[in-house]
């Protein structure tokens, strides 16, 4: 089986998309992350949902988690405000990162190897440089370990 055969339609955002819009999309559809593209539509990164959560927590609280217990709860509107002022591009790492992108004719084992090596919850699948869909880790596990593999 090939990556292109199991790739599914999936939301894609570009680097200029509001971080709040991206967070709402992740929350609404309960996504493990989003595929991020450059303005021209080429794959740029995968933004895991955990990175959006990480952005919401102030750096000083991340550095000393015990502060979270003594600082009053951050109001949801303050978190939304911080996300509203940022773009998806602001949430991406500044150093180059290998992209979890596969060609449509790559095998399921190649797909699993990329996900495992990059610790990515999803991989974009491209054909001719164009994103044709995404394979999530849950889709891959269902395929490999579903009812037929008892």
| Biggest beta sheet summary | 3 strands, mixed
Question: SS-based structural class?
Answer: alpha/beta
Number of strands: 6
- The Rg value, from CA coordinates, equals 17 Å
The CATH architecture would be Roll
Q: What is the residue-averaged pLDDT? A: 87
CATH superfamily: CBS-domain
The helix/strand series, from N terminus to C terminus, equals HEHEEHHHHEHEEH
Uncertain runs: none
Describe the structure concisely.
With 150 residues, the chain is α/β, with parallel strands linked by helices. It has eight helices and six strands. The protein has one domain (3-145): CBS-domain.
Notable characteristics:
3-stranded mixed beta sheet; 150 residues; 41% helix; alpha/beta; CBS-domain
Would you mind describing this structure in some detail?
This protein is α/β, with parallel strands linked by helices and 150 residues long. It has one domain (3-145): CBS-domain (Roll). The protein is built from eight helices and six strands. The protein has helices at 3-6, 19-29, 49-56, 59-63, 76-84, 88-91, 108-118, 137-145; strands spanning 12-14, 33-37, 43-48, 101-103, 122-127, 130-136. The chain has a three-stranded mixed β-sheet with strand order 1-2-3. A three-stranded mixed β-sheet has the order 4-5-6. Helix 7 links the parallel strand 4 and strand 5 (122-127). Helix 2 (19-29) packs across helix 5 (76-84). The longest helix is centred in the N-terminal third of the chain and has 11 residues, at 19-29. The protein is globular and about 50 Å long. The chain starts with a helix and ends in a 5-residue tail after the last helix. The mean pLDDT is 87.
């Amino acid at each position: 089986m090939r990556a292109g055969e199991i790739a599914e339609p999936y939301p894609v955002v570009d680097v200029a998309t509001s971080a709040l819009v991206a967070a709402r999309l992740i929350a609404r559809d309960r996504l493990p992350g989003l595929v991020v593209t450059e303005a021209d539509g080429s794959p740029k990164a995968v933004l895991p949902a955990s990175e959006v959560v990480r952005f919401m927590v102030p750096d000083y609280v991340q550095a000393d988690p015990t502060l979270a217990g003594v600082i009053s709860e951050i109001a949801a509107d303050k978190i939304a405000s911080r996300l509203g002022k940022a773009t998806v591009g602001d949430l991406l790492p500044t150093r180059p990162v290998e992209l979890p992108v596969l060609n449509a004719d790559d095998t399921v084992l190649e797909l699993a190897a990329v996900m495992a090596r990059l610790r990515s919850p999803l991989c974009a699948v491209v054909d001719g440089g164009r994103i044709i869909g995404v394979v999530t880790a849950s889709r891959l596990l269902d395929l490999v370990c579903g009812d037929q593999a008892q």
